[in-house]
Specification:
It is a single chain. By secondary structure, this protein is an alpha/beta fold. The chain has 3 domains: about 5-175, Thiamin diphosphate (ThDP)-binding fold, Pyr/PP domains (Rossmann fold); about 190-355, Rossmann fold; about 365-540, Thiamin diphosphate (ThDP)-binding fold, Pyr/PP domains (Rossmann fold, 3-Layer(aba) Sandwich). The protein is about 40% helix and about 15% strand. It has 25 helices and 19 strands. The strands form 4 sheets. Strands 3-2-4-5-7-6 form a 6-stranded parallel sheet, sandwiched between helices. It has a 6-stranded parallel sheet with strand order 15-14-16-17-19-18, with helices on both faces. It comes from Nonomuraea coxensis DSM 45129. InterPro entries: DHS-like_NAD/FAD-binding_dom, THDP-binding, Thiamin_PyroP_enz_cen_dom, Thiamin_PyroP_enz_TPP-bd_dom, TPP_enz, TPP_enzyme_TPP-bd. This is Glyoxylate carboligase.
Amino acid sequence: MKRIPCMEAVVAVLESEGVDTVFGIPGAAILPFYAALRGSSIRHVTVRHEEGGTHAADGWARVTGNVGVCVGTSGPAGTNMITGLYTALADSIPMICVTGQAESAKLHQEAFQAVDIVEVARPVTKWAVQLKEPAQAPWVFREAFRIARSGRPGPVLVDLPLDVQRGTCRYDRDLDAPLPVEVPSPLPKAVRRAMDLLEGARRPIILAGGGVIIGEATEELRALAEHLQVPVQVTLMGKGAFPEDHPLFAGMAGIQTQTRWGNAAFLDSDLVLAVGARFGDRHTGDLDVYRRGRTFVHVDIEPTQLGRVFEPDLGIVGHARPTLAALLGEARARGGPRAPGKWVRRVAGLRRALNRRDDFDDVPIKPPRVFREINDFFGRDTTFVTAIGLYQIWSGQFQATYLPRRYLVCGQAGPLGWEVPAAMGVKCAHPERQVVAVVGDYSFQFLMEEVAVAAQHRIPFVIIMINNEYLGLIRQAELPYGMNYAVDLHYGEGGIDHVKAMEAFGCPARRVELPGDLRDALSWASAAAARERLPVLVEVMVEREANAAMGPALDAIKEYEPLPELISADWSD
């Protein structure tokens, strides 16, 4: 077997694992890796900050389902990646971060930019490892990809000391291939028990979490729901797992990203089949309210997720796709497709009666109107990227999603600044797609230097900024305490003119202050991004004191209206 530079073997592994783009910043301690990368088919996008690189790799991974890769040098490059690693771990995103390191003999001598990044990264990764021998290089990376993909996916960090990078190893890419990844199937008796519970319920719902999308199980989910005529809800991470214009769509339940009618439907349900959902606290709220009167069947690929938040009535370990397929097979064996019953009609009635308004003509613009225009203008295949804050909550409450991997959100970690680099990663993965980043004014400022990267590499997408000139979510959270420590961001008092900032990057931008101008601005931005091959900003000035409907528990939202004909009737089959 031929002996080659071990970094060439590593790059060959990356290529065979389906990586076509990596994001990173070169540095002295990672140059042997970059020298090998130059001779490969892999595109390298040089970012402006290593955290931005991790978020770009994250976006690439979310939209492709493959393992994203970010590269940096030693010291602060690795520590800058920690937020991105945590974000990927929290949202089950497969990613590999590669860091350079000082020479092995210098690590105990406090050498320049020598930090024990493996120990720093261990709590926010599935595996953190330092390469010790050049001969291990291709095999450590094969294992890194396997671990990133296996079970509940997540990030891996591989640290490369400079002297090890310079070594050689025996490797033949024709004799190597990706390692197999186990796809666990559920026990047949557990499937039968789950179907017994479903058949015995009067008002069941299926709750689709992010695991349905990660597991490529959306077709199985839809087939099962249609066969049984069971309404389907989604979590924030599960948006896109089920078309939101489907007759069986039952909205979203939660204390922040939710629909009023989704909360009402959930509270009326008597059984929840949760697939690939982790019962995050922003979804459940008060567990006593969330669990009261309902039976829970929890399906997850990761055994330790079962019972982590509360004990289900039935736990099933299994990959989402074979588990939903097995449930469908069991349902078909017990009878033909069902017709819609009273419970399905009840959910449809709640949707008609409890939809929130989004047709406001007020000035300043009310945020729901922005999302009405977004829903009306952009096509079903558009990929949206959003992060954390009031704009994420409004997005979850108002934005419609129809297809998997078209609504990307940093749901659990919630790092500000995630949207722009993530959108860049999405566009690199799918240049043919329309990509839209919905951002807040403050979040945009966290990593807005990555706009320069998108401009340099001609990576076009539309940025829609919901600007209330506040740290709006913090302001809303402070109201019960009578405090007002939120940063005031309006122009002239520490704020930024975002239109001028975009123009400084060489990118088009427009500010909108009237609701009647929104559609024209979106049309202009979409055309300009495609024509100029640049990121384009539409800054929408919204009502400063606008709040998002939230409550400590599902039944605490003060927006319900009297529905005597719906509430008093017995809608059980």
